[in-house]
Amino acid sequence: MTQMTAMFVMFVLYGLLPAAGLYLGYRGIKKVTAPKMLEYKAMPQLGYIPEKSLPVEVKTALDQINTKGEKLRVMYGDTNNDGKIDDKDTVNETYIMIQNLMDRHVPQALSDYRRLHDLDVTEDSLADTTKIKHSNVTGKEALLDVLKTINTQFDDLLNASYHQDGQKLLATNRYLQKRFNNPASNTDIQKPDSNANNDASSDVNIQAIESPTGENVSAKDIKL
After folding, report:
1. How far is 69 from 190, CA to CA, in rounded Å?
2. Contact 106/46 with Cβ under 8 angstroms?
3. What H or E segment, with its residue span, contains residue 8?
4. Whole-structure pTM over 0.70, yes or no?
5. pLDDT score for 198
6. Vertex 156, ends 154 and 173: CA angle to 5°?
7. What confidence tens digit (pLDDT) does each residue in 87-118 have?
8. CA distance 91 to 163
9. Crossing angle for the helix pair 139-179 and 93-100, nearest 10 degrees?
């Protein structure tokens, strides 16, 4: 082994490896001890906020908004039903409103609350105990009211989507019954006559099923 090779091996063993071990250990300890941040698929902008910095009621409301918002994004954003939201989908006002609520209104409300919360360094935060001037609510209650309003709007949109899709199913059923001139439901289908001649042949005309046409029901416009 040459002198240069020996020096390189010494550098790796006693310099590089210990330094790498210390760095990885530091990163591991920092990751374990770091506070858990909010993690929402529908609202990634909130990822900088520690979970423990928010009251339990606020966290619960955010969980509900995230779940409902993600469902609504697919319902109103994936207009061509290909399983993804991209340039091929048609953007409508309802989808833009949903995105604005999750991208702007929720983060802004949390930012305002956190500023109120940080104004006081005592154990009992002003935002949780002190009524806002000319109102009968605290900062925490005001934030919960905002989140409740958004939750209610999302509930209305989900409810409207349910009834809209249900009406489409009813329209499809009416169309098919009219198309085949068979108003009887599937529970009223009669059994074939057992005495019929099995050797008799019959011609069956199969018609192509066309999807029923009808005007699209526009979603309820909600403005905050």
Report:
1. 46
2. yes
3. helix 3-11
4. no
5. 45
6. 120
7. 787 878 888 999 999 999 999 999 999 888 77
8. 21
9. 150
Q: Among residues 106, 105, 111, 91, which one has the least CA distance to residue 40?
A: 106
Q: What is the pLDDT of residues 66-92, one digit of tens each?
A: 999 999 988 888 878 777 777 787 878
Q: At what angle do helices 106-118 and 56-77 cross, to 10 degrees?
A: 160
Tokens of 153: 């709007």
Backbone angles phi, psi at 138, to 5 degrees: -85, 175
DSSP state of 111: H
| pLDDT at residue 32 in the model | 61
Contact 153, 127 (CB under 8 A): no
Instruction: Give one DSSP letter per residue of 43-96, joined into a string.
Output: -GGGGGSBGGGS-HHHHHHHHHHHHHHHHHHHHHH-TT-SSS-STTSPP-HHHH
| CA atoms of 59 and 94, how far apart (whole Å) | 25
Q: Which residues contact 112 (CB under 8 A, 6 or more apart)?
A: 143
CB distance 98 to 151 below 8 Å: no
Query: Whose CA is closest to 75, among 58, 56, 98, 44?
Result: 98
Residue entry with tokens 């500023």 = 115
DSSP single-letter state for residue 26: H
Quickly list H helices, 91-138: 93-100, 106-118, 126-129
